[in-house]
Design brief:
Length: 331
Amino acid sequence: MLASRRRSVLAIDLGGTKIIAAAVLSTGEIVSRKYSLTLADEGPRPVINRLSSAVAEIIAQAKLKTSDIAGIGIAAAGIIGTKEGIVTTSPNLPGWRDVPLRDIIAERLGLTTYLINDASAAALGEHRFGAGRGVDNLIYLTVSTGIGGGIIMDGGLYLGADGCAGEIGHMIIETHGPQCNCGKFGCLEALASGSAMTKELVRRLNQGEKSSIIELVAGRLENITAEEVAIAARQGDSLACDIVARAANYLGIGLANLVNIFNPELIVIGGGVSKMGNMLLAPARKAIRDIAFKLPAQTARIVRARLGSNAEIIGAAVYVFEQQPKGGRKA
């Protein structure tokens, strides 16, 4: 069935490395999808041009008429002023400061447009169509290069006063810890993300510790990623195992704080680092049991996300379908 037979949302996942645009139905079905590079170093204007072009291509591919389109939903990385439709800042999008992305896209394409943080969108997607279906209270974490989050309370997405709630990766876990990309010290992201594991492993290698990971990257330390750390850990490399266990413990401390504060039924873990599975999640679960209050710790289940790289675009579409006219920007 063509998308024109039912109303669609044009959903965009805007990240530091890629732009994914798609036409998504209210059922969560993706009927057309396009992937392109962000090339974020070029600055806001070229990126916005590529985003606009991607949306235009999706409209053509799906043979959509304006009457077929419920609106545009943009899930963007960074601190998002959802109410104003502004990307206030983003560590993954250089030069983006107070960019009124929602209004720019609405004016260019003549369609009602909404802007939301990418991890909040993913939380909404997993809640409606993924691992969190039927759960009224959940927390979503994406653990990859960085750490982001989204919060579902009483069946709805919680965005806070300015629309930027859920920056879980920037809760302070260790006040004298390493510096985060946000400029603060000891953030969960600086201790438990994929980039945190990589930095810690390289630091310890440079201090003379031994690891089989050097063979995996042919001696090129700059090629080490969290994926290589995971491979080495599965092979029993002691340094890699220690790095993963350390990150998992910090992750568990962060999750224990969330369990005590929000008392969720479910914690959904997404992102590339979640592919480590129980190697990461088992120590995190133990930390929750050891640190959180007994009752909410017994209630909270930790599971892996189900929607993969489609979580953000599906969630962005859900967000548009569920909004009242007052929440977007009409052309």
